[in-house]
Amino acid sequence: MSLPPLLAGLRLPVVGAPMFLVSGPELVIAQCTAGIVGAFPALNARPQAALAEWLERITAALAAWDSAHPQRPAAPFAVNLIVHATNPRLDEDLETCLAWRVPILVTSLGARPALNDRARAAGALVLHDVIDDGFARKAIDKGAHGLIAVATGAGGHAGTLSPFALLQDVRRWFDGPLLLAGAIASGDAVLAAEAAGADLAYVGSAFIATEEARAAPAYRQMIVDGAAADVVYTAAFSGVAANYLRASVRAHGLDPDTRPTRSMDFGAGLTEGDGAKPWRDVWSAGQGIGVVDRVVTTATLVDRLRREYVAARRRLALSGEGGHG
Questions:
Q1: By the 8 A CB rule, do 154 and 204 touch?
Q2: Distance between CA 260 and CA 237 in Å, rounded?
Q3: What single DSSP character describes residue 183?
Q4: What is the pLDDT of residues 199-212, one digit of tens each?
Q5: How far apart are alpha carbons 53 and 213 in whole angstroms?
Q6: Residue 170 CA to its chain's centroid (Å)
């Protein structure tokens, strides 16, 4: 398995997952300059015209970093496009991304051959997130370059399959770029993702508790205080099953275990209105948050992940030399 050159030179084999309402230019720039891929959802830039402003800001900041640090250039960045039919901004957002030559596009909730063809022609890498082998095959058939296997325990919209089962299903037939998402918040887990067959780890929730994230202080603190048992999996708020923090659900007077399901509509998420909205009021998180014990800078978090990753590799190497008896 070999990664495309765009993803092969990372300081750590990690892509920062794009998080609705949380990931902005500040976080993306900090992730890229720390040596991992930074990403944000296009829908976070509001109104639509702001997307070009964000891309200009990110592009300029990374170019300035590269000029000042020629021995340690910034990692590339990605923009997440929701491909579902209820997203009224998809066409405009795609045009803006192509105009700014965004290097990586992450597509979610649908795969469109025309979009993939246009991205390929523009030289952009397309990674599509999937929750099972069937969706993975459809995504590649429709022209995606690589896959993000979203396993159980991931923040936001997540699947229900074990990461081991999901990766082995996909790797039986696909040897292209493959990322794993699902409760990855430590360097040990990053290495485990590689050992299980992924090329890169997809890390989101740990970055909520960073100074650069666009998360409310109470949200960050809930991540710091939380553990796997504090995460509930429900389709109640977006129409697609996702993981949310129980405390944020209860804070709005709702029962996280009996809330009825609503219809999926990403257009509705672009406007303000009555009632609790994901993820403005009801906050998302993955099951890996138990390892997060304080709010830090993104650079500090990436340094911690890298130290743990290197230590885990050394520990396993030493174990292998000595045997298990």
A1: yes
A2: 9
A3: S
A4: 999 999 999 999 99
A5: 18
A6: 19
